[in-house]
Amino acid sequence: MGVMTFMRTKMGYFLVGGIAVVLALFVLEPLLQQGTAIFGSSRNVVGAVDGEEIKYDEFNPKVEQSVAQFKQQYGGNVNSQMQAMAMDNAWQAEIGAILLNKEYTRLGLTVSGDELFDLLQGKNPSPLIVQYFGNQQTGQVDRAAVLTSLKAQAKDVKLKQQWDLLQAEIEKQALQQKYANLIRNSVYVTSLEANDEYMNRNKLANFKYVSLDYSSILDKDVKITDADYQAYYDANKKRFDNPTETRNFEYVNFSIQPTSADTLAVKAQIEKLAADFRTTPNDSLFAANNSDVKVPFTYISKGKLAPAVDSVIFNYPAGSFYGPVFSGNSYKLIKVIASRFSPDSVKASHILIDPSKIGGEVNALKLADSLKSLIQNGSSIAELAAKYSVDGSKDKGGDLGTFARGAMVPEFENAAFDGNTGDIKVVKSQFGIHVLKIDKQIGSSKVAKLAYIEKNLLPSSKTRDVAYKKASAFLNEVKSNTFSSLAQKHGYTVGVAEKVTPTQGFAPGLDSPRPLIKDAYAAEKGDVLSQVYTMDNGYVVAHLTEVQPKGQLALEDVKKQIQPMVMNAVKAKLLTEKLNKALSGTSSIDAVAQKIGKTVTPVQNMVFSNPIIPGQAQENKVVGAVFGSQVGKLSKPVEGDKGVYVFTVDGFTNPAPIGNTFKQKETMILGVTQRSLGAAFQALQEKSDIKDNRVKFY
């Protein structure tokens, strides 16, 4: 039984999530099959890779699992942007699995039975086996525990499910490692490349330059023609390859921020609440029932509350009343129940007993008292934890490390911080019965137990109704070609969201835009979306202004985007012409500077790999031209990012010959191999026909 408990607790989130996937599929399947019969199979297809469909009923549990991981990581709070990221993580994993499995088949990569045996219970265990069955201090795998758990599968269905999921993951990791090794072994660096890289990082150039900035010509003095746009577009076509369809929309957000009337109403409410709070016989219960923000009724240390409160409340004696005080968009009311000095942190060990495993709480308390006596009489808590504890700390002798207030459940925290070094206590918590040993208490500072009430200043239903009526009236009145002008007429601010992808979870100025984005992808260019969208901070009416398809964007699609670059290109022609006139009949950089009314600027110790000209900008073309020039020769005008340059090279300083070509190659290969896996996967994606219909479902 102990081995199975060990297996269940050590398998962690991965296996629990796997079981959740199986259960979710079982629950969802009948409903989705019915939907397929009514609407057709396409309604259940989230996407496809080279014709292989990704079904919603198989994909959605993975999304839910990814969201659950985000919730666990961020304490249960997941906004729309995080949800979109979680969904994208699940999508990338699904695409990766399909593409890589095809590659494994094409390359003949497999995991043999002997290899799998070795990964599970042999001399070269999988990292997952080490994680679940390894001693954290020595790194050695308890093979006896592995074998016992494998044998126990026959009598434990849940344990078998866990092992099936674990084995599948181990095989997957083994295949990924084989593929990664193939990719790494396919890249190399030549001696010539190693020497070039060494020179690029160590060869120094000294030069002088004069420049004319693009800002020296006012935009209003430049006339851009269609030919200018076309020339820039043709020269930079690769920049305008759109990897996925994007859309632009404009919107008006009808704010639902609290009005002055709302503020007065909330203030009256909080003043009545304060009067009741002063006289209530049960401070903690009253606070818990009336606060919008829950603060545990336990001792807390300075730094845990809002700054305005935190800076004063710890100076109040027990029995004091604070508030109502408004800060950070909420009113605060606080009763100081008690205050004292307490350790800043505690180092502790424990043994956790699960009452359900030994016949109930009474037996668990008896065992805890026996273990407490043994420890008091000199027995090792580390040895007892390894034998009796049911949580992961048993592998470290029950050591919980050092923790501050707020890290443990209140019952355990109070026992650890209220006791003294060396104390051994029996503590009951939601996790079971603990035998706690306080190993060390560190530091000392004032802590306070507070009955805490916080009431947020929120808009009233009347304020919300007024904003919604304005939004509805605007939606009923507006036409696609009058959106901006009508908004301006009414004094509304028009927001703009550009290059919004189908699965994006955010948009400028909007806190929960997923429903709006989803509808934008079902609309046609020029459509005013047919509903008012509810955000946390307002009601939104939107108008789809642009659709940028996947693939090569046309000039008209990018004309607005490239206008500043085209402007500089036209200016560059004018400035180049001016510099060519200055160069005519001139042999020195000083003479050129004199003709254009500029000063010569020297640059010392420039390296090719860091092409930033001091006081100017990163100028790749200019610095590249410098390293390709002859010493003492006056250059032709070079168009840079900030302006047009003319320069002359004073000299180069070559580094000492490379001392260890092999070491240079190794350093370069490390960087290349790190990039190669991502580049290989990107190439697989680009070569595949991937259809993404997620916007229809999420």
Automatic annotation (TrEMBL):
One of its GO terms (molecular function) is peptidyl-prolyl cis-trans isomerase activity. It is a single-pass type II membrane protein. It is found in: Cell inner membrane. It comes from Pedobacter polaris. SUPFAM superfamilies: FKBP-like (SSF54534), Triger factor/SurA peptide-binding domain-like (SSF109998). Keywords: Cell inner membrane, Cell membrane, Chaperone, Isomerase, Membrane, Rotamase, Transmembrane, Transmembrane helix. One of its GO terms (cellular component) is plasma membrane. This is Periplasmic chaperone PpiD.
